[in-house]
Request: fold
Amino acid sequence: MDSPSVPRSMAGPAVGSPGAGRPPSPALDALLAAHFADGELVLPLLPTYATQVVALCSDPSSDARSLAQLLQRDPALAAHVLAIANSAALGAREKVVSLQQAIARMGVRQLASVALSIAVKTKVFKAGRHLERVSRLWHHSAVSGLFGREIARMRRRNVESAFLCGLLHDVGGPVVLQAVDEIQVATRCEFSAKEIEAALTRHHAEVGARLVRTWGLPEWTSAAARHHHAPEAATECLDEVRTAHLADRLADFTEGTDDLEGIDGVLSALGLYEEDLDLLQQQVEQVRSAAEVYA
Ligand SMILES: [Fe+2]
Ligand SMILES: [Fe+2]
Reply:
């Protein structure tokens, strides 16, 4: 998949699959388009706490105490957040045992984005027929989120917004895979791995944009999801779109599927230089191990 418009991160191997070598299926493509257009697409919902967390973070008067109270209502979530706060990736030396301490260590915004990432993983990137593909996508998303954060840190911009741009850019992927499964059951057709991958490539960005808008997340998350493979097509939220594009490509670079050729335009649009790209590339191991925390 060499076209610049084709997402390399979505280009999974089809070697050995029944349909390897076949062209993408117009039948599956048409069925998916109809499935999405007819309102048959069932979008996963986020748990209530996740949307409340987003609302809380958009409220300038919100404080650590109200966030802790919100997260405490879900013990499994609270335990997960504490585990992340205590991870070596966050430079944890002394163990934190309460959410208030975790917030003191991570800050309200970082803790909120961690809580949102746990919700997205649980509700969207969940086990199903495509378990292996979805877990690869989740790892790619976590790495992209962490690179988004590094890009924003370098540019002295809001690091948590950039984290979410990276984390959510491919959020439509598992939803497309789920829709393919529903179509396979309804039509009794069995599509090849290559056909499914082509459908994923074609539809994930638009579906992801629709999904985050349904959740009530800010408009820039939707723009980042829609245009992350073609930032030049975006007309608004350009900073977030470009950050998502660069973070996505750096994640692909980490996975060995992108040599970052042609990245110069986006790099300079973000006010970054070749030396900055070198620094980001040097962070591959650090980012890869930090992503394990989100697994
Ligand atoms: Fe993508
Ligand atoms: Fe991606």
